[in-house]
Design a protein that fits this description.
The chain is α+β, with helices and mostly antiparallel strands and 425 residues long. It has 12 helices and 9 strands. Bound molecules: protoporphyrin IX containing FE. The site of protoporphyrin IX containing FE (HEM) has 28 residues, from strand 5, helix 10, strand 8 and helix 12.
Length: 425
């Protein structure tokens, strides 16, 4: 039995005995900390990826796909990678079962545990979220290639799935890179994200520990495309989140291109990209626009008027209007079907983490994207951006220091299942 579960089991046993102290009966706390038995929320019978919301400020947990991928971007991110301490398959299976229950509860605005608090033991809920809205919390779990190797489950690993390679000009720092499990928490409140990760981490005690953690956020904006820290709208030509045809073609795995247990899942790329803010701020307005290949204020293409106008690269073969080495031109050269096949779903956040060791702003983009094939989509784009013969102009002002590749298993369809169940069957 896992160490983590034995702790929970022990707590459970303690409260069934006379010594059990039911905190919720003694003091008047909101129901989310009372510790009264509150079963894991049941999924609606027609659980799908597009379930109607069950409560205000919540996003559905049960569905064909995990939440936090085609969910409209919440304002805040906390993304944390864990490394396994235990390489016992049953421990990891138990952990994923426990996490699934906790995630189903926390995303529904409930405390992480349905057990009864015993005053002799640490709190079952750390408590900093009490009184806060669930803030549309979503939690998305992915597995690194190393997890399959550690658990002796290489036969379950998708063909060709490995660690994130080092791309030209990367400066990866080992403690900020890779990981056995990634947990992406997104919500409209940073404390709600932190609370979720913190409580999942407590539950992983003895089985996994945190390897790296990054936070991110966007400016508060009710609608429209958010801006990155270079001041440009970021996400303009992202696919529409309700474009099911696009998602089936470019994001969701099916039984043909990946092992059957991953159908409904996807591949996730995480890159912590430092942005050289001080250098960028010295650039002329025109150089900034030429670097991105869009107009700064409106987000319109260089040859357009409105944000969503289609850039016309064909009439600009020599790159006079939209430079050939501008970011959008290299990211999406608009070469018909080939470019369409490469398209990815981006879901990144700005990060602002004080100053670095030499006094520069430690700020940038937590680039996160989802795709169906690392090689033919993300890497195809990334290799063009970092091609020494025609480097993306943006590369002069950015540097990737961490991140990783993860496979995201499908969603949990009902309360009898758990995240990553297919890995163990
Ligand atoms: C700090 C690094 C980065 C910054 C500041 C940045 C910024 C931007 C901006 C401002 C746009 C234009 C608006 C839009 O359509 O979203 C854009 C587009 C795009 N970026 Fe990035 N980006 C960064 C890194 C990357 C990376 C690493 C990739 C993938 C390898 C990437 C892929 C794309 C794609 C595919 C588009 C859409 C191009 C189009 O279809 O027009 N970006 N990016």
């Amino acid at each position: 039995m896992s160490k983590q579960l034995s702790r929970r089991k022990f707590l459970g046993m303690a409260v069934t005995g006379a010594a059990g102290l039911v905190i919720g009966n003694m003091i008047d706390l909101p129901s989310r900390v009372q510790g009264v038995v509150d079963p894991t929320p049941e999924p609606p019978s027609n659980a799908t990826a597009t379930n109607p919301k069950t409560a205000p400020d919540t996003e559905p947990f049960f569905g064909v796909h995990q939440a936090g991928i085609v969910t409209p971007g919440q304002q805040f991110l906390n993304i944390t990678a864990f490394d396994l301490i235990s390489e016992d398959r049953n421990d990891v299976k138990d952990l994923l079962k426990t996490w699934t229950k906790m995630i189903a509860r926390m995303t529904a605005g409930k405390p992480p545990s349905d057990e009864t608090q015993n005053a002799k033991f640490p709190p079952l809920d750390t408590g900093e979220e009490v009184g806060l809205s669930p803030a549309k919390l979503t939690i998305t779990i992915g597995f690194g290639a190393s997890l399959f190797d550690k658990l002796g489950l290489s036969s379950k690993k998708p063909k060709g799935f490995g660690q994130m390679p080092i791309f030209h000009l990367d400066a990866l720092k080992e403690p900020l890179t890779h990981g056995d499990i990634v947990v992406q928490a997104c919500a409209d409140d940073p404390v709600v994200c932190f609370h979720a990760i913190r409580n999942l981490s407590i539950a992983s005690s003895g089985i996994a520990h945190m390897r790296w953690q990054h936070t991110g956020q966007f400016g508060t904006k009710p609608e429209g495309t958010p801006r990155n820290l270079f001041g440009f709208k970021d996400g303009t030509n992202n696919p529409r989140l309700n474009d099911d045809a696009f998602m089936n073609n470019n994001v969701w795995l099916n039984g043909k291109d990946a092992p059957a247990w991953l159908a409904g899942g996807t591949y996730m790329v995480v890159r912590r990209i430092q942005m050289r803010i001080e250098t960028w701020d010295q650039l002329s307005y025109k150089t900034q626009e030429d670097t991105i290949g869009r107009q700064k204020l409106t987000g319109a293409p260089m040859d357009g008027i409105n944000e969503h106008d289609e850039p016309n690269f064909k009439n600009d073969a020599n790159g006079k209007v939209t430079p050939l080495d501008s970011h959008i031109r290299l990211s999406n050269p608009r070469n018909g079907e080939q470019s369409e096949r490469e398209r990815i779903l981006r879901r990144g956040y700005n990060f602002m983490d004080g100053l670095d060791e030499v006094g520069r702003m430690n700020a940038g983009l937590m680039f996160i994207c989802f795709n169906r094939n690392f090689q033919t989509q993300f890497e195809s784009i990334q290799n063009r951006l970092t091609n020494a013969k025609q480097l993306d102009l943006l590369m002069k002002y950015t540097q990737t220091v961490g991140g990783g590749y993860f496979v995201v298993p499908p969603g949990v369809k009902n309360a009898n299942s758990f995240i990553g169940e297919g890995l163990f069957s």
